[in-house]
């Protein structure tokens, strides 16, 4: 098995270029407006316009409406969806795209149950938990 590297929260074309030159397999674009790393559709289009063909583009969403995800898919060439909110397995699967589901880790979190519930996911991402705040994408797990 090969380790793949994704840099998430890319907001500028030059950062995507640097990540690609550094050998990343994927870049992540945040489509969650409250995040300081959120991108607009225009930014996302500019960032992805000149990416090499084997660099995946991951779109990160938090409790987005299906219309928002579909609109993004129409305008940005996403390879993979990443969900960080309270999305159900049915919600995640409706886009007919590979997806990653973030699981906010708490003492009572049952990863076996989460893996079974999201059996259609390409992967589960173990995310930190902070009361009332969606997990910051790709932060290291600091405990419950």
SSE layout and pairing:
Blueprint: E1 6-8, H1 13-21, E2 26-30, H2 41-48, E3 56-61, H3 66-75, E4 80-83, H4 89-93, E5 99-104, H5 111-117, E6 123-127
Parallel strand pairs: 1-2, 2-3, 3-4, 4-5, 5-6
Number of domains: 1
Categorize the overall geometry: globular
Compute the average pLDDT.
Answer: 86
Beta-strand segment tally: 6
How far apart the termini lie comes to 29 Å
**SSE series:** EHEHEHEHEHE
Strand content: 15-25%
CATH architecture: Alpha-Beta Barrel
Top-tier CATH class: Alpha Beta
- Biggest sheet features: 6 strands, parallel
Radius of gyration: 15 Å
| Share in helix | 25-40%
Secondary structure class reads: alpha/beta
CATH topology: TIM Barrel
So, the CATH homologous superfamily?
Aldolase class I
SS field, number of helical segments: 5
Notes on the structure:
Its EC number is 5.3.1.24. InterPro entries: Aldolase_TIM, PRAI_dom, RibuloseP-bd_barrel, TrpF_fam. Belongs to the TrpF family. One of its GO terms (biological process) is L-tryptophan biosynthetic process. With about 140 residues, this protein is an alpha/beta fold. It has a single domain, classed as Alpha-Beta Barrel (TIM Barrel), CATH 3.20.20. It has five helices and six strands, in the order βαβαβαβαβαβ. Strands 1-2-3-4-5-6 form a six-stranded parallel beta sheet, with helices on one face. Helix 1 links the parallel strand 1 (about 5-10) and strand 2. It is globular. The relative contact order is 0.15.
